[in-house]
Amino acid sequence: MGLSEEDQVRIKRRIDRRLIPIIGLMYCVSLIDRTNVAAASVAGMIEDLALVGNRYSVITLVFFTTYIFFQPPSTILVRRLGPRIHLGSITLAWGAVMIGMGFTQRWEQLAALRVVLGLFEAGFFPSCVYLLSTWYTRYEMGKRYGLFYAFGAVAGAFAGLMAYGLVHMHGIKGMGGWRWLFIVEGILTCIIAVVGYIFLVDFPDSARSNWRFLSAHERDWVVARVNADRGDATTTKFTLKIFAQQALDFKLWVFGLLFFCTSTQGYALSFFTPIILTAGMGFDATATQLLQITPMIWAACCMFIIGWVGDRWRIRGPLIIFNMTTAVVGLTLLGFHSVVGVRFLGLFLASGGVNGNIPLLMAYQANNIRGQWKRASATAIFVGLGGVGGVAGSLVFRPSDAPLFRPGLWACIACCLASIIMVLLLSLYFWRLNLRAERGEIVLEGGDEVAVWDEGARVAFRYTY
Prior knowledge:
Layout: H1 5-35, H2 37-48, H3 55-69, H4 74-81, H5 83-101, H6 107-121, H7 124-135, H8 141-166, H9 177-199, H10 216-230, H11 240-245, H12 250-280, H13 285-291, H14 293-313, H15 317-336, H16 340-367, H17 372-396, H18 406-438, E1 442-445, E2 448-451
Antiparallel strand pairs: 1-2
Helix pairs in contact: 1-7, 1-8, 1-9, 2-9, 2-12, 3-6, 3-17, 4-5, 5-6, 5-7, 5-9, 7-17, 8-14, 8-16, 12-16, 12-17, 12-18, 14-16, 15-16, 15-18
C-alpha cells in the first residue's frame, strides 16, 4: 500500500494506543461490577440482607442466566450498530443498575438486579474479543489479548483498594459501606461509558467512526494486511442461516469447552478469594481487601508474558498446558498444605495459571478461525460457554467446606486436567491437517478442510497448535 516500515510500525502503535486502553478500561469496570459482590460480602452485605444458607451463591449465579442467553446476538449487534453505540450504551445501562444495587433492602431485589446486570454485560466481552480480532494478524493477537485482559486485571485488582476505601464510608447518609461500594462504582462506570462512546473506533473495514483515527489509505493497509494473513478482513452479507451453520464445526465447541473449564476456575477464584482468605486462612476483613489484590497483579504479569511468548514463537497449545499444570500445583498447595504462607503461594500459582490462560485461549481460538461470520459465531459460542463456566464457578466453593474447600479445589483440578487432554487432542488434529496440507492432500480454506487432487492446489491457511 506504499507505506514504509516506519509508517507501518507507527500505525500499529496508534491502533494499540487507541484500542487497548479504552476497551481495557471498560473491561475493567465490567469485571469489577460483576464480581464486587465478593468485596461487599465481607463489608456487611451478608448481615444486612440476611444472606443465609445458599443465598450468596444464588446472587452470584443468577447473573449468568441472562449473561449466557444474550451473548450470541451481541456479535451481530456490534456489527450492525458499531462498537461506539453498542458498547457505550450497554456500559451506561449496567452502570445505572449498579447504582440501584446500593439501595436494595432485600436479597431478592439484589438478585433481580444481578439478572438485569447480566443482560447488559452479556454484549460487552464477546464484542471486545471480536473487535480486537478484526484489527490484528494472527500472531499479533496473543500479546494484545494479554495486554487487554491484564489491563483489566490490574485495574480490577486495585479496585480492592478502592473497595477498602469505599466500605469505610459506612454510616454516611445512614448507609452501610457496601452500599457506597455499589453506588460509587456505578457512577464511575457511567463516566467510563461516556468516555468509551467518545473514543472507541469501529471495525477496520468500516468508515463510520475511523475517519479521525486513520486515513482511508491507512485503513486500507490494515484491511490488506489482515487479508494477507488470513483472508477475512471484509464481511460478507449476513444471513441467520450462514451465522447458525458455522456452529456445526466441532472445533468451535472444543474452544468453548476449554474456555468453560478456565472460566469455571477464574470465576470461582474471583467470587470466593475473599471468603477463602477470611474463612480459610483467618485474615480479617481489612487484610482480605488488601491481600486479594496481589494474586491478580501476578496474574496480569503472567497474561502479558505468556501472550508475548506465544506470539514470538507462534505457539498456543504447549503454553496452555503449562499454565494448567501450574494451576494444578497451586490448587494442590491451596487445599492440601497446612501452612498459611504456602497456601497463599498456592493461590498465586493458581491465579497466574488460570487467568494467564484466558487471553491465550482467545488467541488460540482466533488463530484457528477464518471468515468474519464464523469468527462471530465462534466468539458467541466461546464466550457463551465461558458464561456457563461462571455459573459453575458460582457453585464450586461452598462456605460449609471451609477452611480447606477441598471439593471445590478438586472440581478446579478436574477442569485443568480436562483442558490439558482437550488441547493435546486438538493440537494433534491440527498437526495432522497441516501435514496433509503440506502434502497437497487437502486445502485449508476458510478454516475448513477441503479434499483436492491436483498437486498445484493453493494452501491458504495453517492451523496454530
